[in-house]
Amino acid sequence: MTNSPIGKNSRCPCGSGKKFKHCCLRKGVTYSENEDGTIRKSVPMSDELGEHLEQLMYQRSEELGRELQPDDRLFENLLYEHVEHDLTQSMEATGVDPALIYAFQETGLIVSEENQHLISDKDLAAWQAAIDRYRSEHEPPQEDIAAFMEMMRQSNPEVWEVMKSMAEEYDDPDEFTNAIMVGPCPQCESSSTEDCECDPVIEDPCIGRCLDCRQLFCTDCRCTFEDADQAAAHECPEWERLAQLDDDDDAF
């Protein structure tokens, strides 16, 4: 089937509404259309990816016992759903920002400094919108954080002084909040930790995960867990104590 290149003055297939020459062509992206109207997108390949592809082609040729033909597939029975699932698990295991994982699931994009210039402005906007949407739904607004800090300043001066001292150690507000709410890893004492509210198995902000040694732990009683299932089933004695204090306050 014959493929014809998209004309420079045609509307860019990315959907931006711009002419192709003023849009994706500037990024080195090309489009072609076959006889049934199917549009194919081609992007420049990095040297590293080219070398990896050559290795895959060689391996596939060895598997077939002959040279590859134009219609041969490099990957048999490869479903996008399986690839997405495996990539998502890998990103979660390596501590990738949950907002970036969500954006990947919504748009199919993994954006980096190396490939950003190859992605259409419309796709980049959709990717950024997904990140913003995740943050608005899962992260507390700045005014809520400010109200919490003011409450701490007024209610407990000693704790407030400790928090101010900690704040001076962190340039990133997220790292500061994490240091207060999650704390260091009880196993290796690393400060690179996160809560597990977005973990599909645990779904609990009171369970922490160390990004260095991968240890799971309770952010309140600091006990550790062997796996996600054990962490999800945890009933912290501190929670019971706090609940009892609330009941005692209600009695008065």
UniProtKB/TrEMBL annotation:
Annotated Gene3D superfamilies: 3.10.450.50
Name the record gives this protein: Preprotein translocase subunit SecA
Organism encoding this protein: Neorhodopirellula pilleata
